[in-house]
Write a structure and sequence with these properties.
With about 130 residues, the chain is mostly beta strands. The protein is built from two helices and nine strands. Its EC number is 4.1.1.11.
Length: about 130
């Protein structure tokens, strides 16, 4: 059986731009793409912490070190500058691989500068 699992996420990034009339996508600081392993043109899911919107688009490379997170095209209706978002990419693997797989988790500050990475999340307390 094949499973769809979390490949990578950029956690609580701050939206810097919402460009309604730019060709659709989400521009992400190229350094964050490289660190997370998310590839340009890869499908991504974006979860808006501020308003609960969840949407799918694709990643495009933003200027390295710029901190840019630009939600573009129709998706610009789902986020505005200052919103916190979680950006996720998923991959497909076999069950045996999934049992050993650890996603790349990227954490940023309010300026979208890297604070740290991790390969697992702590267990949620009851």
């Amino acid at each position: 059986m094949q499973l769809n699992i979390l490949k990578a996420k950029i956690h609580r990034a701050t939206v810097t731009h919402a460009e309604l009339h730019y060709e659709g996508s989400c521009a992400i600081d190229g350094r964050l793409l490289d660190i997370s392993g998310i590839r340009e043109y890869e499908q991504i899911h974006i979860y808006n912490v501020n308003n609960g919107q969840r949407f799918v688009t694709y990643a495009i490379r933003g200027e390295e070190g710029s901190g840019v997170i630009s939600v573009n095209g129709a998706a610009a209706h789902c986020a505005q500058p200052g919103d916190l978002v979680i950006i996720c990419a998923y991959g497909v693997c076999e069950e045996a691989e999934a049992a050993k797989y650890k996603p790349t988790l990227v954490y940023v500050d309010r300026d979208n500068a890297l604070t740290h990475t991790n390969r697992s999340m702590p267990a949620q307390a009851a």
